């Protein structure tokens, strides 16, 4: 008589405990918070009229990292170099040059430098030989396909013995429309290879820079 009444009450009590336990546990499991984002690839390159898939990856406060697939807004500066489809994050090259692209997601931003290039068949650097003293600069012009100045898109480094050196730094100077190599006061005297490369081109162009002692 009493057993028949206890069984349903026991079941009801067990169900209530289970519901309470489930509700309390659910309170402990909250969605992780996005703390930072990055753009992939970190330095995207694309040929004019071609496309490159971009992605945004987020790092969360629980240490996890995963792709952010929605709520991403894209912009670029200067404009006119690339376009980015807001729905697919596909970047299209519009004109040769470099531009900073920015991704915004959940109040966070990430930046990357995008390069748009054309396919070339040859690469040269001039002058092919030069001499400059410690503490001075030496400009080099990088040319593609015989007569196209691509110094703004080329990457130029100084090497000695096949290793890149840090005492000679080369960067594009728009006032000279050339790559200007700055020779540090501490650079050792002697010959250096000035090596130019271009996005999408498998070869390189090499000039020789002789560093002399400061006067």
Fold and architecture overview:
There is one protein chain. By secondary structure, this protein is mainly beta. The protein has 2 domains: 34-117, Immunoglobulins (Immunoglobulin-like, Sandwich); 123-212, Immunoglobulins (Immunoglobulin-like, Sandwich), CATH 2.60.40.10. Helices cover 13% and strands 51% of the residues. The chain is built from 1 helix and 20 strands. The protein has one helix at residues 2-28; strands spanning 34-40, 45-47, 51-53, 55-60, 65-67, 72-77, 82-84, 90-93, 97-105, 108-117, 123-126, 129-133, 137-144, 148-149, 155-160, 163-164, 168-173, 178-183, 190-197, 205-212. Strands 11, 13, 14, 17 and 18 form a 5-stranded antiparallel beta sheet that branches. It has a 5-stranded mixed beta sheet with strand order 12-20-19-15-16, with no helix packed on it. The protein starts with a helix and ends with a strand.
List the helices and strands and how they pair.
Elements: H1 2-28, E1 34-40, E2 45-47, E3 51-53, E4 55-60, E5 65-67, E6 72-77, E7 82-84, E8 90-93, E9 97-105, E10 108-117, E11 123-126, E12 129-133, E13 137-144, E14 148-149, E15 155-160, E16 163-164, E17 168-173, E18 178-183, E19 190-197, E20 205-212
Parallel strand pairs: 2-10, 12-20
Antiparallel strand pairs: 1-4, 3-8, 4-5, 6-9, 7-8, 9-10, 11-13, 13-14, 13-18, 15-16, 15-19, 17-18, 19-20
